[in-house]
Specification:
Elements lengths: L1 H9 L3 H11 L11 E7 L7 H20 L4 E7 L39 H15 L5 E4 H6 L4 H9 L1 H10 L3 H4 L5 E3 L14 E3 L4 E5 L5 E5 L5 E3 L1 H12 L3 E5 L6 H10 L6 E5 L2 E2 L16 H7 L2 H9 L6 E2 L5 H15 L4 H6 L1 H6 L12 H11 L4 H11 L9 H21 L7 H16 L6 H13 L6 H12 L7 H8 L1 H12 L6
Parallel strand pairs: 1-2, 1-9, 2-3, 9-10, 11-12
Antiparallel strand pairs: 4-8, 5-6, 6-7
Length: about 525
């Protein structure tokens, strides 16, 4: 462990860089609360989505890195903002009209439209927890409703009443003129209607811990700031929550970055140390537009898991979190194959290399062994030329290429075969466009056909790649043009696998027949 810890102290992997910042907080003394706290927040107005997965997965990576660096215990809290008022009725729930009368009520006071839980907030919290549990995340769950109503937040709320003017100064600077007139950090929850009210304060009484305001009907009311009678506006809530829990690390998307100084300052006004934070870039769809829950663009979590494993998604999340990345279906095969390349490399690496390997940050010390005997991209090409509608078709080729494999002995491979068939049918098949070869390409293909017909060497990737390479080397400059021709003429794609490996998998005689079909113009039709 000590050699690994030494390596971790200088590792350039971003989770270690973040974890070292957290460790620096406690170089003089360990945390009084007895543990280091990582937090991730969730707005439970809708179902968990790919951004939720990314945030928890990446926070877990930093937590895991910290646990290599230090023996201080850690906790990860997933905090649900379920005391927020329901601003609008979601479009994807049964009987939405029945929810209209509950607008502005906290989500935990809105009836569950699915009629399964105590409230809509409870329903969405259950979906979140099921989601996190499915991926094996370790976390403690906190409901904002419970946090406010149980009194856990009371000390900080009373302090916010005491330091109301200081917090208001921070907030008012960030608001437009018309909003300043009515803004308050406190949002009362009406004792009769149960609605969250956006009303100006007539008085904040720090000594008694109360606020006085007029409700919508003009009735003056006084409520204690404690016990769940009042909640904080979301920006003050962010900083106050950090103060109340003693949060040491939280990450969030770039859309929050302009608010970071506000969150930090409020935490400090409330007498606590601001946490370390990490801002990640947002995902883009295939057109370079920001992925959003409401517009449904990009890839959803369910869609990714239809075509690839959760581990490949974690791998994608690990890569360059501070770079805006396109997250569309075409990134999936690359993520799958790179993940397995890293798995294969891990076994032979020293501690320094292992700590820089993404699979360590995905799996910790329990890095599995890859059983992918054929890359995912190759499976897609194989599915393409064999028009594979079922897993059995692909397994027929794989078992001839690697006789000791099978669905029972190679479950990861079998899962990937199923994903490949699905991905081929949904994405590759509709996009396939073959073309006829040019005269020089036709001559090269005939030469390749002749070489394969005479070939009596081993049916192995490298040996066959040499045959393909030799024919192209004498005829194409640059050589890339030869491989582009093979892909476009024989596979109907703009790019493809190492072609020697493809022949070894698909078969020499099958490849000869494929060249014959292409030369006869049968693939174009």
């Amino acid at each position: 462990m000590s050699t690994m810890r030494d390596a971790a102290m200088t590792s350039k992997a971003w989770p270690f860089e973040e974890a070292r910042k957290v460790l620096k907080r406690y170089e003089k003394a360990p945390p009084e609360k007895g543990y280091v706290l990582f937090e991730t927040g969730y707005g439970p107005s809708g179902l968990p989505h790919i951004g939720t997965f990314g945030e928890v997965a990446r926070t877990t990576m930093v937590r895991r890195a910290f646990e290599i660096l230090s023996d201080i215990p850690t906790k990860l809290i997933c905090f649900s903002d379920d005391l927020d008022g329901m601003r609008k009725v979601p479009g994807n729930v049964p009987n939405p009209d029945a929810l209209q009368e509950h607008l502005q009520k906290p989500l935990t006071s809105v009836p569950d439209p699915f009629e399964k839980f105590a409230s809509f907030g409870h329903h969405n919290n259950a979906m979140l927890r099921r989601f996190l549990d499915t991926f094996g995340f370790e976390y403690d769950f906190i409901s904002a409703t419970e946090f406010y109503q149980s009194g856990q937040f009371d000390t900080i709320l009373l302090r916010a009443a005491e330091r109301y003017d200081d917090i208001m100064k921070v907030m008012l600077k960030s608001l437009r003129e018309e909003r300043r007139q009515t803004y308050s950090i406190f949002l009362p929850i009406h004792p009769d209607t149960g609605r969250v009210m956006y009303v100006p304060m007539k008085n904040v009484d720090a000594a008694n811990g109360t606020i006085t305001f007029d409700d919508e009907d003009g009735t003056e009311m006084t409520l204690p700031v404690t016990g769940g009678n009042v909640k904080l506006q979301w920006k003050p809530d962010f900083g106050a929550r950090w103060a109340a829990l003693g949060v040491d690390f939280e990450m969030y998307g770039k859309d929050h970055s302009t608010n970071t100084p506000i969150y930090d300052r409020i935490c400090e006004i409330l007498g606590e140390k601001k946490p370390e934070h990490f801002t990640y870039e947002l995902f883009l769809d295939e057109n370079g537009q920001k992925i959003s829950k409401s517009s449904g663009n990009g890839v959803s979590i369910d869609e990714w898991l239809t075509y690839a494993s959760a581990e490949s998604l974690s791998y994608f999340m690990y890569q360059k979190p501070k770079t805006a990345k396109r997250m569309y279906f075409d990134v999936i095969p690359k993520a799958v194959d790179e993940y397995h390349q890293q798995l294969r490399a891990y076994a032979g690496q020293d501690d320094t290399a292992r700590l820089n390997n993404p699979v360590f940050h995905i799996h910790g010390h329990n890095v599995p062994t890859s059983d992918m005997v054929v890359p995912f991209a190759m499976l897609l090409n194989l599915a393409s030329v064999s028009s594979a509608e079922t897993k059995d078709t692909l397994w027929g080729f794989i078992q001839r290429y690697a006789p000791d494999t099978g669905p029972d002995t190679h479950p990861g491979m079998d899962q990937a075969v199923g994903f490949a068939v699905r991905y081929y049918n949904d994405f590759v098949k509709p996009a396939k466009t073959y073309r006829m070869p040019t005269d020089p390409e036709k001559e090269a293909l005939m030469a390749l056909r002749a070489a394969l017909a005479e070939y009596d060497g081993p049916v192995e990737d490298e040996a066959l790649q040499s045959v393909v390479y030799a024919i192209g080397r004498d005829r194409f400059d640059p050589l890339r043009g030869w491989f582009t021709a093979l892909y476009e003429v024989l596979l109907g794609a703009s790019q493809g696998p190492r072609f020697g490996g493809f022949i070894a998998l698909y078969g020499v005689s099958e490849t000869i027949a494929l060249i014959d079909s292409a030369l006869a113009g049968e693939l174009v039709g």
